[in-house]
Amino acid sequence: MQYKELDVDSMLEFIQDLEVIQEYFGSDELSVAEIGDGNLNYVYIVKSKQDPKKALIVKQAVEYLRCVGEEYALSRERMNFEIRALKKFYHYLPSFVPKIYFESEDMSLVIMQYLGDHEIMRKGLIEKTIYPNFSEHISTYLAFTLFYTSSLYLQSDKKRELIDEFNKNTQLCKLTEDFVFTTAYMEHDTNDNENVESNPDAKKLFEDMEFKSKILNLKYKFMTQTDCLVHGDLHTGSIMLNQDETFVIDPEFAFIGPFGFDIGALVANLVNSYIHHSVVTKDEEFKNYLLETIKEVLELFEVKFLELWDKQKESALLVDDFLDEDSLISFKSEFMKNILRDSIGFAGAKIARRVFGVAGVEEIRGIKDKVLKQKAEVLALRISREFVMKYENLKNTEEVLEMIKNAG
Ligand code: ADP
Ligand code: SR1
Ligand code: MG
Prior knowledge:
By secondary structure, the chain is α+β, with helices and mostly antiparallel strands. It folds into 2 domains: 8-113, Phosphorylase Kinase, domain 1; 119-407, Alpha-Beta Complex (Aminoglycoside 3'-phosphotransferase, Chain: A, domain 2). Helix content is 53%, strand content 12%. It contains 16 helices and 12 strands. The chain has helices at 8-16, 19-25, 78-92, 121-126, 134-148, 156-166, 170-179, 193-196, 200-206, 209-224, 260-281, 284-311, 325-356, 362-365, 370-390, 397-407; strands at 30-34, 42-48, 55-60, 64-65, 69-73, 100-104, 109-113, 119-120, 228-230, 239-241, 246-248, 255-257. α11 runs antiparallel to α12. The chain is globular. The N and C termini lie far apart (55 Å). The relative contact order is 0.12.
């Protein structure tokens, strides 16, 4: 099949001939609308006109970066990695990942379960929605996806096969190297330059060599640490949820990277929400809920990851009885501390990149009042700096919460 970039009309034509669509919708008449609000791709909802609750999502990658425009070329191969990662994660956690109905690498297109009763977490948090099951769900998601794709579970040959499968997600890894670890800390065309020009906070950040050297260390970890299969872009816009269920979408940035990268992305985005509520709503109760969520996610992740690890006696890393019991316990404890540390380092970079870099987040860049927006930016840069300068010596999650609270 020859690739063609589809629009609402050609999408309808394309899907109508597919067996899965005929099976799912029967003889219903269909409507198609584009609903994508992400930075990279086009997302369509296909609905039955007779029963609008009956719906599927069609996502297609185009040969450029949507949020910048056609002049920023980007290979549509990213969809191959999204499909592979969705399948891999679905295999471990079918209740947290949308089901795939159809995939086409030729068309760079996937058809998946419509999450019609779920909302994007970023938006829900702005509206002060409390999600009672979120920490429990996402800590399971993180523990399972990170553990089962790592050398703590896999044997050496399987781990290397997995590396091969995701190693060529070159362009999206480069996007992260650029946008998360480089351009947001220097003068650059892609930055939010209206805000950067003659902004003393931007000047201070761009000249902060101590901070930028630490960012370089984190970038190096990102480029070289092949711990496990990570989602690669686990911000709150990649989570759709409600009071009962949590789904993780959009893993096109998936690659074999550091354990702490997804955890860091999530923490960063919870902190961004905390910053929003610190300056905009000033709702102390909701801010505490966010802090409690960060703590729970980090702590539950550790407990669940260790539970999985304790059951696994042999892996690429360890053979049974290699260490005596006490040594194994302290090895694991130090290992988990390093995951926590890296997570907070990455969280720091992920907070700072959203301040002046491309693709700001709604809860900060979207603040209408200029004075409040600047307050939010300053707070973001302060927390980010604390994280990035201190992550290597962190001892526990309490210290993480203290850094956030004390920055305010
Ligand atoms: P991008 O790759 O461009 O970031 P996303 O995968 O984040 O695209 O999807 C963009 C938007 O489309 C999401 O913010 C959400 O509103 C909607 N969306 C994506 N997948 C689904 C789904 N399975 N069910 C319902 N809505 C979805
Ligand atoms: C220009 S691409 C910007 C960002 O969008 C994605 O969601 C990733 O976070 C990426 O860095
Ligand atoms: Mg997205």
